[in-house]
Write the structure tokens for this entry.
Amino acid sequence: MALDAVGVAILRHFGTTAEVSAGPVFGQEQIARAVELGLGVSGPAGIELVTGDDESAAFAAIVAKGLQ
């Protein structure tokens, strides 16, 4: 589920459909349903983006902001 949320944040960064762009990431239907069922993380605070270099860390910071 964390991977789904990160994927949505990345799609939003590069441009996507109106449906994927609407509302908070954790408000997306499939992600919200997973949270209801207790699957995976329940919000952005439960996601840690691990990187191996400065360039990746910079992009991870952008993605993390998109999860909010």
About this structure: Residues 37 and 62 are 28 Å apart (CA to CA).
